[in-house]
Amino acid sequence: MPAAAGSGSVGVLDLQGGVQEHLDHLRRLGVPGRPVKRAAELEGLAGLIVPGGESTCLSRLLTIFDLREPIEQAYRGGLKLWGTCAGAILLARENLGETPYFGLIDIAVSRNAFGSQLDSFNRAALVPAVAREPVPLTFIRAPKIVRVGSGVRVLLQLDDYIAAAEDERILVTVFHPELTPSLAFHRYFARKCGLNPAGTDDAGLDPDWTPLSWTCFSSHA
Amino acid sequence: MRAMNREIRQLVGIPAEEIMGFAKANGLPYELALEVRTLGRLPVVNFAAGGIATPADAALMMQLGCDGVFVGSGIFKSSDPVRRARAIVKATAYFNDPEKLLEVSMDLGEPMPGLDVANMPGEERLAGRGW
């Protein structure tokens, strides 16, 4: 049964990658968030963030930890999904030159499409569906979305690639909103999950955020 | 790791006027001391490496507050590296789950042979910590 508006929490797949950074953004919005390491922890979630990290590593861990099927099952049961960077690669139906993993959203991605780590960059862009002001975007060895199917809406097109897209139940971004002070994409995803996050429709820049804010979620702080 | 945690706790607990002295005594920039004090941990990810031979070793380091572990010889000098690598990955992820730790620690074969610290002469020991 879908969660009622305002109830439910958002999980962050906690195997590898930017887990604590996402949890910190959710906390700043007042959205209950929790790390997900076990299938049982998917219970009662309105949404799940598949974070950035390394997509091959994440896919292997998802398989070793028996999480692939439970996530697919939860998705069929109404769980909303958001993949950032490597997470978007895992959710894509087509991964150019490689085997797709979940294949749940009708997009094609090209891995490491900008080049090496030296080609990582920051920029800002207006994403009208998400915020009425430009939001900062951080691309780290990012993939490009190079094709979207007919049921998929493009949220942000830049140069020769698509950087953000969504269908009814899945959001994909090739950049990392959790590594910027902007809460706008987390707010957008929380709303997509039927939750009521704090804030209006501005860029959602949190002046208290720093690149070290995530450390409050580390196990020993 | 325990020594580091102890010193971080100490830094968090001392009055503000003693931070400069602490920084001086530990050869640490004052600004970094302030940052560690605010965060209650190091401002960078901290990986444990060296001597990790069992899933329990990996889980212990995670419980002590490491952000991850690096394991080389502990895997490749064991009798069944594939199985041991898998077990150490699982133990690192489920470091707070005793049942999982027990499950992944079964039937791993022989670990990397090690030296008993108690039998090592004092001058060959890297540090006087431990048991």
What descriptors fit this protein?
heterodimer, A: 221 residues, alpha/beta, three-stranded mixed beta sheet, 12 strands, B: mainly alpha, two-stranded parallel sheet, 47% helix, elongated
Notes on the structure:
The complex is a heterodimer of chains A (221) and B (131). Chain A is globular. Chain A is of the alpha/beta class. Mean pLDDT of chain A is 94; it is low at 1-6. Chain A has helices at 19-28, 55-64, 68-76, 86-91, 184-192; strands at 9-13, 33-36, 45-50, 80-84, 92-95, 105-110, 121-125, 135-139, 144-148, 153-158, 161-166, 170-173. Chain A contains five helices and twelve strands. In chain A, strand 11 (161-166) and strand 12 form a beta hairpin. A seven-stranded mixed β-sheet of chain A has the order 2-1-3-4-12-11-10. Chain A has a three-stranded mixed β-sheet with strand order 5-6-9. In chain A, 20% of the residues lie in helices and 28% in strands. The longest helix of chain A has 10 residues, at 19-28. Chain B has helices at 2-13, 19-25, 30-39, 55-63, 73-76, 81-93, 98-104, and strands at 47-49, 68-70. In chain B, strand 1, helix 4 and strand 2 form a beta-alpha-beta unit. The model of chain B has no long low-confidence stretch (mean pLDDT 91). Chain B is mainly alpha-helical and 131 residues long. In chain B, strands 1-2 form a two-stranded parallel ribbon. Chain B is 47% helix and 5% strand.
